[in-house]
Design brief:
Elements (H helix, E strand, L loop, with lengths): L2 H13 L1 H5 L7 H5 L2 E5 H5 L3 H8 L3 E9 L2 E10 L3 E17 L2 E14 L3 H11 L5 H9 L4 E3 L3 E5 L14 E9 L2 E8 L2
Antiparallel strand pairs: 1-9, 2-3, 3-4, 4-5, 5-7, 6-7, 8-9
Length: 194
């Protein structure tokens, strides 16, 4: 790491110290020293839940993330205005992770299982709502007009360069390679580049 990278990292850490301190207990110092970032599902499901749900309100009421068998399982409790309460379950598999200085992109394959929580009328409304739309996820992303995410019937594409957090100079010197999603942890290798 060069002088400017270290200065940027220190500035970033001091700037975000209040919010970062609550998350640090979830990481192993030995892993970080060896360039391994293991993100436990309990971090995402507990201290990160409140700020994530705040960003997803009012449509997402609760979620649970599980890392197992090299898959990411995502259970969502939704409440969409016209459709009512819905349980949405996703099976995600990381297809590509490009996190280099010039490009920060992710792609996943996914399967969706949608279960209306109301009666038969809600099931019919949901089928009508999704008619010729593909998946609920496709419809939700198109309605949200998120420019960083694109979804088709089988894939999710995320362009992190369109997310303000990832435009920081700190991320311009960071390389991340996806390793696996096993035993309750999403594991990556990271390197700070010169």
């Amino acid at each position: 790491m060069n002088d400017q990278t270290i200065k940027s990292l220190l500035g970033f850490l001091i700037e975000k110290k209040e919010s970062l301190s609550q998350y640090l207990d979830y990481f192993e110092p030995a892993d970080l020293r060896n360039g391994i970032l293991s993100i436990p599902e309990e971090l995402i499901n507990n201290p990160c839940k409140k700020p994530i749900l705040a960003k997803l309100a009012p449509n997402v009421h609760d979620y649970k993330v599980t890392f197992s068998g090299d898959y990411i399982f995502l259970d969502l409790n939704l409440n969409i205005k016209q459709l009512g309460p819905i349980k949405a379950m996703y099976l995600l598999s990381v297809e590509k992770c490009v996190f280099e200085p010039q490009m920060h992109r992710l792609s996943f394959t996914y399967r969706e299982d949608i279960r209306p929580q109301g009666g038969p009328m809600q099931s019919m409304m949901l089928k009508t709502f999704l008619l010729n739309q593909g998946s609920l996820l496709q419809k939700a992303v198109s309605l949200s007009k998120l420019k960083a995410i694109q979804v088709n019937r089988t894939h999710i594409f995320v362009d992190l360069d369109r997310v303000p957090l990832f435009t920081s100079a700190f991320f311009e010197k960071l390389s991340i390679q996806y390793v696996q999603s096993q035993d309750g942890k999403l594991t990556c290798r990271f390197t700070f580049l010169e």
